[in-house]
User: Which sequence fits this backbone?
């Protein structure tokens, strides 16, 4: 057998999809920081988490990534995409770039992606459930209803989030996300 | 449900099925401590651009494929198996991915044996008990499955190897890979799966886990076979039938080979008729023979075929015969694709004795040549 007919093959890359996911993770990370300062319920969710809480949401095997956690003053902060010394207390790893694309193009909600084992969670389960609730609320603020309904498990009813609160909150979250406050 | 007296059941394979299933392969390999697979497939898989789809799915994983061998022949010969095991070692591979149907799966399982035990000749494994944990093997079935690809059996030349160690570690069922090119491919694989599942669920003793797999396989087939036969490229139907094949292979691994399978194997060896077609012809005759000779045909077969409503409405005594009627109806619905008898396939009458004797030999004395010939003759003559 001529082995040269069957050479080694290096798997290529998906640079555009990686760039899209990187941008989405940046927006979601900054939006989590912004929403934690805008929405009372999110403030309470984060307050219930441990003081050294640090979430890393990333795509296997080599990124992109998002780090969100509490700073020394207990405020929710977006820490960028690179770990700097502190070990995350909760790591949610998306198994591959296509699974991340399904989540961030809202073809699958976070809940369905978890049920289909597209994510691996390393950390406390109650923290992971809290993060999923936070992500649901952030996506409700960021996305129009027609898209948000695909992304979240249950779109909030009028009694849970009235349109006035939703639209005002949306303006505040978007402003804070892009200004970085 | 009656509590079984005693049974044994084992299935090792993790099944990943659905949208973007192939993209999970690098993660699964990593969890099995493997990073450099040897990919084995055949030319028709490459010609159908399925190899390209596989390589696209592996992008961004950082994986290095040790070699992509796409010249697997239409038989699992010892020479090619021995050569591939040398290629595996030469490239420093640590796992195998098989893409396609039999005999690609048989070749992959045998190469895995040689690679794991660091031996050079697959023929040395004949009549040997296989023990010990194998190197990772991932199976990606395509259309045109013949049955047994995802089982614990590997056919090599003139003999078979069977061991729980031969199960693939993962079976990846992806709609992009399971779309058929022709209705013949669909019917061949669906009939093979149906025969395996019906054969397993028709056993007189109750094995509830095997029954669960068999009944689900039968339901999938009944719900999708006509859709897939009319439109072979129907992705959903193709994936459903691939799922049915996977489940039927698990049943097949956990039950003895029945007369239908043995006769189909003998028919293939003598007349080169695909297994699935032979099994599709033989199956209704086999069950009708059982009914006519007052042997038990389990009524749960009707539940698997039609669902709870019709099953509940049918009196208990009529359920078995109703199930057999439905099999005949499926036969009629597939007229034009599935032949009605072996006579219509130009199998000469004088060959039947040879085929029956071969089947009896393969059965290791579980069936006599006379019993095999009786069924074969009815299937040759056809239904009036």
Assistant:
């Amino acid at each position: 057998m001529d082995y040269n007919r069957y050479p080694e093959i290096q798997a290529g890359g998906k640079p555009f999809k990686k760039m899209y996911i990187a941008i989405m993770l940046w927006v979601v990370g900054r939006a989590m920081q912004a929403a934690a300062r805008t929405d009372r319920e999110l403030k309470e969710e984060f307050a219930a988490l441990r003081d050294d809480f640090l979430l890393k949401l990333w795509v296997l095997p080599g990124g992109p990534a998002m780090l969100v956690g509490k700073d020394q003053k207990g405020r929710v902060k977006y820490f960028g995409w690179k770990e700097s010394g502190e070990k995350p207390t909760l790591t949610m790893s998306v198994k591959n770039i296509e699974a991340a694309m399904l989540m961030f193009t809202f073809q699958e909600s976070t809940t369905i992606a978890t049920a289909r084992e597209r994510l691996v969670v390393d950390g406390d389960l109650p923290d992971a459930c809290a993060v999923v609730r936070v992500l649901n609320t952030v996506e409700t603020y960021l996305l129009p209803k027609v898209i948000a309904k695909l992304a979240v498990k249950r779109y909030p009813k009028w009694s849970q989030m009235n349109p006035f609160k939703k639209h005002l909150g949306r303006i505040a979250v978007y402003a804070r996300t892009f200004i970085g406050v | 449900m009656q509590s079984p007296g005693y049974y044994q059941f084992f299935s090792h394979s993790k099944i990943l099925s659905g949208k973007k299933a192939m993209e999970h392969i690098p993660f699964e390999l990593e969890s099995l401590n493997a990073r450099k697979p040897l990919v084995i497939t055949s030319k028709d898989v490459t010609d159908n651009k399925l190899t390209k789809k596989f390589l696209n799915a592996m992008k961004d994983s950082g994986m290095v494929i040790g070699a992509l061998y796409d010249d697997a022949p239409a038989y699992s010969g010892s020479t090619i198996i021995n050569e591939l095991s040398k290629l595996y070692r030469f490239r420093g591979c640590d796992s195998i991915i098989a893409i396609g149907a039999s005999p690609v799966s048989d070749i992959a399982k045998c190469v895995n044996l040689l690679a794991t035990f660091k031996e050079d000749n697959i023929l040395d494994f004949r009549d040997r008990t296989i023990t010990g944990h194998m190197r990772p093997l991932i199976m990606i079935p395509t259309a045109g499955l013949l049955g047994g690809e995802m089982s614990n059996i590997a056919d090599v030349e003139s003999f078979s190897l069977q061991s729980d160690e031969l199960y693939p570690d993962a079976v990846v069922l992806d709609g992009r890979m399971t779309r058929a090119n022709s209705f013949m491919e669909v019917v061949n694989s669906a009939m093979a799966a149906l025969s395996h599942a019906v054969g397993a669920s028709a056993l007189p003793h109750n094995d509830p886990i095997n029954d669960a797999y068999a009944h689900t396989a039968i339901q999938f087939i009944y719900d999708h076979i006509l859709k897939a036969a009319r439109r072979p490229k129907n992705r959903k139907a193709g994936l459903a039938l691939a799922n049915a094949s996977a489940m039927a292979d698990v049943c097949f691994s956990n039950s003895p080979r029945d007369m239908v399978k043995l006769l189909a194997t003998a028919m293939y060896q003598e007349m080169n008729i695909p297994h699935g077609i032979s099994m599709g012809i033989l199956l209704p005759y086999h069950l009708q023979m059982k009914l006519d000779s007052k042997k038990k045909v389990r009524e749960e077969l009707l539940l698997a075929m039609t669902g709870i409503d019709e099953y509940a409405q049918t009196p208990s005594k009529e359920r078995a015969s109703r199930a057999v009627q439905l099999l005949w109806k499926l036969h009629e619905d597939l007229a034009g694709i599935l032949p009605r008898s072996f006579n219509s396939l130009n199998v000469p009458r004088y060959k039947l004795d040879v085929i029956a004797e071969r089947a009896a030999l393969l059965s290791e004395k579980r069936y006599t040549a006379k019993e095999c010939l009786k069924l074969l003759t009815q299937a040759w003559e056809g239904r009036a």
In short: Chain A touches chain B at residues 1, 3, 6-14, 17-18, 60-62, 95-99, 102, 116 (CB under 8 Å). The longest strand of chain A covers residues 54-59. Chain A has seven helices and six strands.
